[in-house]
Specification:
Chain lengths: ~425, ~150, ~280
């Protein structure tokens, strides 16, 4: 809110409102006049796409909650009831399920964009931290949501992941029973997951509001990572330039979304989740949803004891560590240059990191046998080395390419 | 174009609140009345509501026909409350039209039903004769498919 | 910005390492042959006649052991399904009895609104009658099974939208019985050898045989072979309908929605270009 507002109330009613709750002034300042760098590329539309995804999940979710029953004897059947009998239920349910996957696809692109262009660097550290917090909340929400249909994967994923807490020394088992509401995953677990799954998206929405606030203090980063020097020359008002571009991006995003939801709604899921949860029968391969696979691979990779820490606890520490380390990224990367466009060495390592992350995704679904075990260890090691060794070093040893003096200078003369 | 898209998207989100297929499947039921002896009533469920199905005796029918319309708070003839050729069958929603309690059969001052909640009396055609209820017991839509099979709803 | 060559090379490296076939059990499961299904692909719909045949197979053979508790009789008259009339469904339902605590004796004749009654009163009864194994419910079984692809071929499935793994597996399973188990294989008492069943020892005896069911063909329609191959295809299609009754409507709506979105995206792009015209960016 560092802008001097140009809003003047158009009529008496507007002035009356503006004196009491300046909501129109606020909207105009932040959604219309906000000066946005003119050189943002399409990777920057994913912020708006994510807001759309959150909206879709909340609307379809509230509707599903009108028809869903969170009791172990009725949950599975109530989801089938939605798919079969509720008007439009098949579509609403598949939009919600596919929507979760699309939400994570978009968030990974958004995060990787931030990592490439140095959007996490000063003065946007809090923005980045809020983002990681949103990511964590998303993971919790998605995890609990997946349990609700009460299929085999739902119940067993809940069992395996809540077991993680049992690894904590001393308080582990009492904590596990507290979380589950019992000795094993059962009705108390399902009910509280439903309650929290309904709650968390609104917590996410609140953190998103903070995230956008934190963004609007310094303003957006841009592909060359050079600060805005002159508002007139370097920026454009958010409306109509970026409202239009974001809207276009959103419609484009809806195309693969709709393709999955209408033509292959179950392809991102697992057939075993169409079998009702049976605590006496463990599926041959317990696999989380694809967006958790990299972290699942890291969790499984630690199958050896480290000093006095047993492998189970070790896995949990690395699993938690792999997400927590993201919070420290602004300080781990020592380079003064933001954008990967001007960091030739960093670029190589960035893409290696991306390939490594994709490899971890694949390995998370592979059986824990043979060569996959070795590869998982290598990829896990690289993940941590990237953050703890490579990024700090690169800032010191890399010679960045010369930066343009300003945004307007860098866009002038570009073929149009 | 955006408007069309928005409307096309919004409609299913609102329509989902309309009764779903499993509810609609029970919107219409068939009932075999031959199991009810003369002078007896049964209460069946239809769309979540209790429904009286009474096999009236000739005496009850005659009594109902003899009531002058001027005596009725909600004037309706007996013919209006039954189907031609099936006058012995009285089919009514079993909620008192005052505040919804289920009246008790074979009681009250008018050879019909009596509602214990606030003292409404209904006659042998289910019409309100005494008490606070404003209307006669409501008739559901029904059709006799044969002499013994009635379709309600 | 994108060093495409490096990216592709790295991906190929990962793919190359990961492609070797996953560890097989000692008796190799042959690859499941994918069938052509009328309901596959963007324009897929169910073949009404096939669904009616499949229903006949289900009713005459499978339903003596397998329940279908999420299927209501009225579903058989719904659009996009086997296409029975309301009267036919009413008559069919009247042949069955359902449990009803409010009815005299605890049972009554079924009406179209009722669900398909289970052949067994309890799960234990079902197990007792089937050597300890529980015949799975058919309602979503076609979606609870799938085909595991080798290496990275499953990536292709995302682009083709392959969702027929269940029917492909069911068809393979029903045709995958052998007279005798292979020599080295120790088959437990009461089990049958099947190529495709995980572990190869299935509790279900081969349920289908040639000529077992007579299909009544309407006048003017082609004869349908009365073989296990035909029966298994038809019942697999019917099972897919049970699992996904709204498939045809979903795909039709999907086509319209996608068309709309593509056109809309085109319009929006044009608008975006117009708004941004003249701006250096």
């Amino acid at each position: 809110m560092s802008e001097h507002s140009t809003y003047t109330p158009g009529n008496a009613v507007e002035k009356w409102l503006d004196d009491r709750l300046p909501i129109i002034r606020f909207s105009k300042e932040h959604l219309m006049d906000f000066p946005t760098p003119k050189n943002l590329n399409y990777w920057w539309t994913f912020g708006a796409i994510l807001v759309m995804c959150l909206g879709i999940q909340i609307v379809t979710g509230i509707i599903l909650a009108m028809h869903y029953t969170p009791h172990v004897s009725m949950a599975f059947d109530s989801v089938e009831h939605i798919r079969r009998d509720v008007n439009g239920g098949r579509m609403i349910q598949s939009f919600h399920a596919v929507g979760a996957s699309m939400f994570f696809a978009a968030v990974y692109i958004h995060i990787f964009r931030g990592m490439y262009f140095g959007s996490y660097k000063a003065p946007r550290e809090i923005l980045w931290i809020l983002g990681v917090l949103i990511f964590l909340l998303m993971m919790a929400t998605a995890f609990m949501g997946y349990v609700l249909p009460w299929g085999q994967m739902s119940g067993w994923a809940a069992t395996v992941i809540t077991n993680i807490f049992a690894a904590i020394p001393v308080i582990g088992t009492p904590l596990l029973e507290l979380l589950r509401g019992g000795f094993s995953v059962g009705n108390p677990t399902l009910n509280r997951f439903f309650s929290l799954h309904y709650l968390l998206p609104f917590v996410i929405a609140a953190v998103v509001a903070l995230h956008i606030w934190a963004l609007h203090v310094p303003g957006n980063n841009n592909p060359i990572g050079v600060d805005v020097k002159d508002k007139q020359r370097d920026t454009l008002p958010f409306h109509p330039y970026y409202t239009m571009k974001d809207a276009f991006g959103m419609v484009l995003f809806l195309i693969p979304f709709a393709w999955f939801a209408f033509f292959a709604p179950d392809i991102l899921g697992h057939p075993d989740n169409y079998i009702e949860f049976n605590s006496q029968v463990t599926p041959a391969h317990i696999v989380p949803e694809w967006y958790f696979l990299p972290f699942y691979a890291i969790l499984r990779a630690i199958d050896f004891n480290i000093l006095f820490i047993d492998s189970k606890l070790g896995g949990v520490i690395f699993f938690g560590g792999s997400i927590l380390i993201l919070f420290f990224l602004p300080w781990l990367d020592t380079s003064k240059v933001r954008s990967g466009n001007f960091r030739p060495m960093f670029k190589w390592f960035y893409w290696l990191f991306v390939v490594n992350f994709v490899a971890l995704t694949y390995l998370g679904a592979a059986p824990a046998e043979g060569i996959y075990v070795v590869l998982a260890k290598i990829c896990t090691a690289y993940y941590f080395i990237h953050f703890l060794v490579i990024l700090p070093l690169l800032g010191r040893i890399e010679t960045p390419r010369p930066l343009p003096t300003s945004i307007s200078e860098s866009v002038l003369g570009k073929a149009h | 174009m955006a408007g069309v898209g928005a409307a096309a998207t919004a409609w299913p989100l609102i329509n989902q609140m309309n009764p779903d297929a499993s509810t609609l499947a029970l919107a219409s039921i068939e009932f075999d009345v031959s199991s009810i002896p003369e002078g007896q009533s049964v209460t069946i469920m239809w769309r979540g509501l209790p429904v009286f199905v009474r096999h009236r005796t000739q005496a009850e029918i005659d009594e109902a026909k003899a009531v002058p319309l001027a005596d009725l708070k909600d004037p309706e003839t007996d013919e209006q409350r039954t189907k031609e050729g099936h006058e012995q069958w009285l089919i009514m929603i079993a909620n008192c039209t005052h505040l919804g309690c289920v009246p008790v059969g074979d009681s009250g001052d008018f050879d019909g039903w009596f509602c214990p909640c606030h003292g409404s009396h209904y006659d042998s055609a289910g019409r309100i004769r005494k008490g606070p209820a404003p209307k006669n017991l409501v008739l559901p839509p029904y059709e006799f498919l044969s002499d013994t099979l009635v379709q309600i709803g | 910005m994108l060093n495409t060559k490096t990216l592709l090379a790295a991906l190929a490296l990962v793919a190359g390492i990961a492609t070797p076939a996953l560890a097989q059990d000692s008796h190799a499961t042959p690859a499941i042959e994918k069938q052509t299904w009328s309901f596959a692909g963007i324009f897929g719909t169910y073949d009404e006649n096939q669904l009616q045949r499949g229903f006949q197979v289900f009713r005459e053979v499978c339903s003596s052991c397998h329940s279908a508790r999420l299927i209501a009789f009225r579903n058989l008259a719904e659009e996009g399904g086997p296409g029975f009339s309301e009267e036919q469904v009413k008559a069919l339902a009247a042949e069955y009895e359902v449990a009803d605590p409010t009815a005299e004796g605890g049972v009554r004749t079924a009406v179209p609104a009722d669900r398909w009654p289970s052949p067994f009163a309890t799960e234990q009864d079902a197990r007792d009658a089937n050597g300890g194994a529980l015949p799975p419910d058919f309602s979503v079984l076609a979606k609870a099974r799938g085909v595991k692809e080798e290496g990275l071929w499953w990536v292709l499935n995302y682009f083709t939208g392959y969702s027929e793994g269940g029917p492909d597996y069911i068809h393979a399973l029903l045709n995958g019985y052998h007279e005798e188990a292979p020599e080295e294989f120790e088959l437990a008492e009461g089990k049958y050898y099947n190529d495709y069943f995980p572990g190869h020892a299935i509790g279900m005896a081969p349920p289908l045989s040639d000529g077992q069911i007579t299909y009544e063909v309407a006048e003017g329609q082609a004869e349908v072979p009365l073989t296990v191959e035909q029966y298994s295809t038809d019942v697999a299609a019917f099972m897919m309908w049970m699992a996904e009754p709204h498939l045809a409507g979903r795909k039709q709506t999907g086509f319209v929605v996608l068309l709309f979105l593509v056109l809309f995206a085109g319009l929006m792009y044009a608008t975006k270009r117009r708004i941004w015209q003249g701006i250096e960016h």
